[in-house]
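Hello,

I think I submitted the protoporphyrin IX containing FE job twice by accident. Can you confirm which output corresponds to this input? Input:
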Amino acid sequence: MSSADVVAVVLFGAITIYAVFGGADFGAGFWDLFAGGAERGRRPRALIEHAIGPVWEANHVWLIFILVILWTAFAQSFASIMLTLFVPLSIAALGIVGRGAAFAFRKVVPDLAEQRIFGAAFALSSVVVPYCFGAVVGAVVSGRVPKGGQAGDSWSSWINGSSIVGGLLAVAVCAYLAAVFLASDAHRLGEEDLVGYFRRRAVGAAVVAGVLALAGYFVLEEDAVHLHRQLTDRALPLVFASAACGVVALTLLLRNQVRPARVFAAGAVATVVCGWGVAQWPYLLPTSLTIEAGAAPSGTLVALIVITAVAVAVIVPSLVLLYVLDQRNALTLTEPAGTGEAQTRMPSTRTGN
Amino acid sequence: MILAVDPVPWARAQMAFTLGVHIIVVPLGVSWAFMILVAEWRANKHGDEDARLLARRWSKVLAVTFAVGAVTGTVLSFEFGLLWPRFMGRFGDAFGIPFAIEGLFFFIEAIFLAIYIYGWDRLSPRAHWWSGVPIVVSGIGGTAAVISANAWMNQPAGFKLNAAGKVVQVDALKVIFNRAFPYEAAHMLVAAYLVGGFLIASVYAVAMLRGRRDRYHRLGFLIPFTIAAIAAPLQMVVGDLVARAVFRDDPAKFAAIELVVKTGTNVPETLGGYLDADGKMHAGITIPGAASLLSGYSTGTKIQGLDAFKANNRPTYAQANTVHLAWDVMIGIGSALALLAVWFGVTWWRKRDLPKSRWFLRAASVAGIASVVALEAGWIVTEVGRQPWIVRGYLRVPQGATTDEGVWVTFLVVVAVYAAVGVTTVLVLRSMARRWRAGEDTSGPYGPRPAGIVK
Ligand code: HDD
Ligand code: HEM
Ligand code: HEM
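Support: Only one job matched these inputs. Its output is below.
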């Protein structure tokens, strides 16, 4: 494996992790959007809030990592992608601002009307952003991004069969992941009715995602010939693995075993993203530019590999610590709200801040 | 597209605007965690519950500003591609490396900030304090990394081009530790502590002026103000080194800073003033020989003027006026802040107390905003002073810009969205403060979730 391949693997690793963890965050926003009116949707929304609160910021950094690797290791292709897909990527960037800010603010504004506005901004952008990313992937795999830092068509590049299927599939997959994760969180917190609520939605999303994947199969056959051929050839084991994980997850869901279902749901998504990478190999931009031809000089690639190694050594344990503390409820309140501050209140009269 | 407009000025405006916004929350992300740890350390060591309450509340506000920093920073990452794809396409191989390191640090910062904020009352006091340390370290490391990227644009190094102008060889360490890195990084880090300190202290200064002078407010003022008061005089020393380094490394920028048109010795320092279209100086106070004296310790020091460079290789006169004005603002505010720090330092040393005068608190109340203005001004010096280059000596700004003619649309949308986010941030912070004053608890965006909320 050349150093360019290693960096490409790192890139796909980051994309896979972002798809699973970031995807679940976005999907949670999807269910927030469709949770109904303020009263009816209160409990599912509270659970959603609860689930993504501690981890969204960390999950989100994967996206930055992806961008940085892309622009450093594969600078020309990054330029082509950004020039061609200016519109969906601008929308995604703004969507991320709306989503992040609204999520942060929603929690601290006192009144319900304001909470609703922020909630709506959060939820809507949670759907728009993954759609745009999916459409961008569709544009890349179908060869609509030219090589050499050139701009392709700024509209038809992302309004076409592959991009639309890509976008819809991304939204469906995010919703699916989120529903499974949320069902599992509800179980952990002992909110049995919410387990059922999200279990039903997980099954529904799984079916929709399956149908879309099937539709994608036919669209790609015409529109993204290289990818299609390799998905049914070199990447076939991964496609099967994904399908198998999906079926197991569905079975577990139907049997109400939500915690193990989580692992298989994540596996189904991770394997399909890896499958995309394997099928696209050796191309960076199918089929005009290979990874080797599009990669930066070796000095840059080696630096990136070293930085990645350090990142794995430092970040993985820290992330594990965060997830473990979160999942163990160590980061969840056990005493009633507000006692934390009340305990520290001093006898000295204080007028506050 | 909708309306085809030359993208270059809009791309510049959008980049400048979004960076100018991002940089406002950056000092808080870099230096506030340190102040929080100082407060929490006092709390743990001396059982100081006022300090603990401060640390607790500060960390909640930090969560809000951190979220704003994260989203505005993400936009910046996109913008490198959206606005400057041809710059990234050609130089991303080198320019990108520091950002990979930045990514690493911000990852750590984000993770430990979450642990710290959620960890109140759930981790032992010791473990909790330690969980804050990586935030401080990664804030410093992350800042140094981004500054390395900016410094590289000013002093590009560590790469070889082939005949076609493509980067064919990269030496990562030379890219990161380019010539401008040490002085820009030092100056920005001191600025982060200076701005963060004055900004937070100013909130408590206002409260004290309004009569809330209990121990809690005093401590809330003293911790950040002390840090800022150390940073402010230090910044004068660092800034002086920076100016001399720019004189050595980037004479065209230096000529713009000092508004020197003709090369010569015994060059006067001009305060204020501007050049007209023919390069003639108007208004302004001149101090004879001072520019030469400051840059080379002798009035005999020769300073290259703008006319020593081809007109298309240096800032225009209009840009030089901008740089010079920004420079005067930075120096003026920097000197005033240093004086304020000295006033505080001398009084404290003699009486172990704050200066009694209400003017001190008034000055401290405006010092926060003033230091932000100085920070923005410094960046304008750096960025406009680099014109017309995006990579000094290698790539001009229009050659790096996008060709998409819709940039004016994204610019307008970005301004509108940022205005909304900015206004909301301020309203949210005020409402948090109001509820704290009323004795209520509030949870920050990462704040712990009360049990049974799902019920
Ligand atoms: C609160 C902030 C603050 C204060 C009080 C000062 N500066 Fe500054 N200055 C900055 C904040 C700043 C900055 C963080 O905004 C910049 C922009 C890029 C950089 O590295 O630092 C900067 C840039 C900058 C540059 C251009 C560097 C370059 O382009 O490479 C020079 C020459 C100076 N400064 C010099 C000074 C001097 C002589 C000061 C004091 C007397 C001073 N600064 C006070
Ligand atoms: C790591 C930090 C930064 C990097 C990498 C960076 C990068 C850039 C780039 C690529 C451009 C466009 C090209 C050009 O016009 O030269 C630019 C322009 C600009 N930036 Fe920065 N910047 C940084 C920090 C800042 C900050 C904090 C400010 C704060 C105000 C700022 C203000 C500006 C301005 C005013 C311009 C427009 C200059 C002009 O076109 O006349 N920059 N910057
Ligand atoms: C003047 C230079 C800059 C400094 C000192 C700086 C510093 C920081 C700091 C301290 C944070 C943490 C968030 C916070 O506390 O508010 C942050 C966030 C961020 N910055 Fe900047 N920044 C600068 C310019 C840039 C530029 C030019 C980019 C473009 C790539 C950028 C990208 C980001 C990103 C992506 C984040 C979010 C990281 C996260 O999610 O945790 N920054 N920046």
